[in-house]
């Protein structure tokens, strides 16, 4: 009898562990379509100051070798490109998000798809509060996606903020 109870307890623990692993994985709606994965990207990084972000959800959107790349002006007046792993990005923004709110939303989108690859030019607006009238920043996220036959993955995300030198062209501020 003790062996039966021990066996059932072990089986229940293993089943609980399996469901916990599934819960930590990607949400089906996040990775089933290009629209879903782009919406999930914006959702995972947005929130009020001090709100913990769902970094496991963000990690689940990217291929293990996926990268986040910021391209923009540097202190010397030139342009720099910083290539980050998802972990680098999380480490970089977590202290900032602890102090101030960050809400990024999609303003417009241009997409191209061929077979199981897609490219999305997603114009964004960033605010410190969801109800702020004017964004403090706008720019473009260039998102490269791949589908492995099961789901969509972010392979790379390159972004550049709008500046006086590089204002957003009107064709990237209207429509989806």
Q: What are the salient characteristics of this protein?
A:
176 residues; alpha+beta; Nuclear Transport Factor 2, Chain: A; 6 strands; globular
Note down, in words, how this protein is organized.
With 176 residues, the protein is α+β, with helices and mostly antiparallel strands. It has one domain: Nuclear Transport Factor 2, Chain: A, CATH 3.10.450.50. Helix content is 34%, strand content 35%. It contains five helices and six strands. The protein has helices at residues 2-24, 28-31, 34-45, 55-61, 86-99, and strands at residues 62-73, 79-84, 103-114, 117-127, 137-147, 152-161. Strands 2-1-6-5-4-3 form a six-stranded mixed sheet. Strand 3 and strand 4 (117-127) form a beta hairpin. Helix 3 (34-45) packs antiparallel against helix 4. The longest helix has 23 residues, at 2-24. The N and C termini lie far apart (64 Å).
How do the strands and helices of this protein lay out in sequence?
Layout: H1 2-24, H2 28-31, H3 34-45, H4 55-61, E1 62-73, E2 79-84, H5 86-99, E3 103-114, E4 117-127, E5 137-147, E6 152-161
Parallel strand pairs: 1-6
Antiparallel strand pairs: 1-2, 3-4, 4-5, 5-6
Helix pairs in contact: 3-4
Label the structural class: alpha+beta
- Counted by DSSP, the helix tally is 5
Termini gap? 64 Å
| Largest beta sheet: strand ordering | 2-1-6-5-4-3
CATH level 1 class label? Alpha Beta
Q: Which sequence of SSEs, written as H and E, runs from N to C?
A: HHHHEEHEEEE
Instruction: Give the overall average pLDDT.
Output: 88
Domain count: the total is 1
Low-confidence regions: 1-23
Strand composition percent: 35-45%
Net shape: globular
Largest sheet: 6 strands, mixed
Rg, please?
20 Å
Helix share bin? 25-40%
């Amino acid at each position: 009898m003790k062996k039966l109870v021990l066996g059932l307890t072990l089986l229940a623990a293993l089943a609980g562990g399996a469901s916990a692993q599934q819960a930590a994985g990607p949400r089906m709606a996040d990775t089933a379509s290009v629209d879903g994965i782009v919406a999930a990207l914006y959702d995972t990084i947005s929130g009020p100051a001090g709100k913990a972000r769902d970094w496991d959800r963000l990690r689940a959107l990217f291929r293990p070798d996926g990268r986040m790349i910021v391209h923009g002006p540097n202190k010397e007046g030139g342009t720099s490109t910083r290539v980050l792993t998802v972990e680098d990005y999380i480490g970089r923004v977590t202290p900032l998000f602890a102090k101030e709110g960050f809400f990024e939303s999609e303003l417009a989108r241009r997409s191209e798809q061929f077979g199981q690859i897609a490219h999305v030019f997603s114009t964004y607006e960033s605010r410190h509060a969801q109800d702020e009238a004017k964004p403090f920043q706008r720019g473009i996220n260039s998102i490269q996606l791949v589908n492995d036959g099961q789901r969509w993955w972010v392979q790379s995300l390159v972004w550049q903020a709008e500046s006086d030198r590089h204002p957003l062209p009107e064709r990237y501020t209207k429509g989806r």
